[in-house]
Amino acid sequence: MKFFVDTADVAEIRALAESGMVDGVTTNPSLIAKSGRKMSEVIAEICAITEGPVSAEVTATDFAGMLAEGKYLRDIAANVAVKVPLTEAGLRTCRALSNEGTPVNVTLCFSAAQALLAAKAGAAFISPFVGRLDDIAHDGMTLIGDIVQIYRNYPGIKTEVLVASVRHPIHLVQSAKLGAHVATLPPSVIRQLLKHPLTDSGLSAFLADWAKTGQSIL
Ligand code: G3P
Predict the structure, then answer these.
(1) Domain 2-213 is classified in which CATH homologous superfamily?
(2) pTM given for the model
(3) For ligand 1, which residues put their CB under 6 angstroms from it?
């Protein structure tokens, strides 16, 4: 399973990339706004940190505007994946850009029917938002399971399921058990994956016993 980082915070991306846990990055207009930086500059900097796909989202809502913005964004760096919303214009843009070899991440997906349309439009990634479904008492993981099952029925579908809007480690584990290809994780969730109190206490006990030996390995 690939781990993407869901942020436009370059310092966070750099720190996590050094850990070897980053296979790509996803951004969205809200995350770019939160960074306080010019979009083209922050996307270029992120693309230089990781070789993996970096999702940069268009903000136009019409086909012509989306296509123009998508071409501009993909020219920033070779590893840009253009992100488009799951609308009619977004799917038209996805088809046009993917036909030119540009990877497209279709975002704001909330149904299996939408995911099927994105695959038909040639999306490289589909981004179902599990957290936002959970937030309104729907089961986001059911959607992930449905999409994975549907895509598996059609070997011609090459679209990767990119689980987004992840709120906690259980979303990640359940997505992996269902066979999702990618999860995009806020930096805080990535750090939560690592922690377990029994690991910490077990290591402390090992080191305490080792200290009693008076030995050192080197
Ligand atoms: O970036 C796409 C998605 O991961 C955003 O999730 O619901 O935390 O804003 P959310």
Answers:
(1) Aldolase class I (3.20.20.70)
(2) 0.94
(3) 6, 26, 28, 129, 131-132, 164-165, 184
